[in-house]
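Private note to self, pasted from the team thread so I don't lose it. Backbone tokens:
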């Protein structure tokens, strides 16, 4: 088993977002981006998500998302 084979079933979680230009949540305000993680479980990521959302509750256009990432199993072109 190669190193890449051992990572096939692994996943990590990140918390990403920031303050968006408006409540359509399509475009972030420059310089407000947030990225937290990686975390090895969704529970860890959700804990950070909740803490950050509580701190920014008064900003209606602030949103964070818990996102799952898995390894890219495609072979790199040579």
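Design output:
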């Amino acid at each position: 088993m190669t190193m890449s084979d051992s990572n096939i079933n692994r996943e990590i979680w990140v918390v990403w977002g920031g303050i968006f230009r408006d409540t359509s949540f399509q475009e972030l305000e420059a310089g407000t981006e947030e990225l937290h993680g990686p975390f090895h479980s969704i529970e860890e990521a959700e804990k950070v998500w909740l803490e950050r959302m509580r701190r920014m509750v008064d900003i209606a256009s602030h949103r964070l998302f818990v996102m799952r990432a898995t390894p890219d199993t495609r072979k790199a072109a040579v």
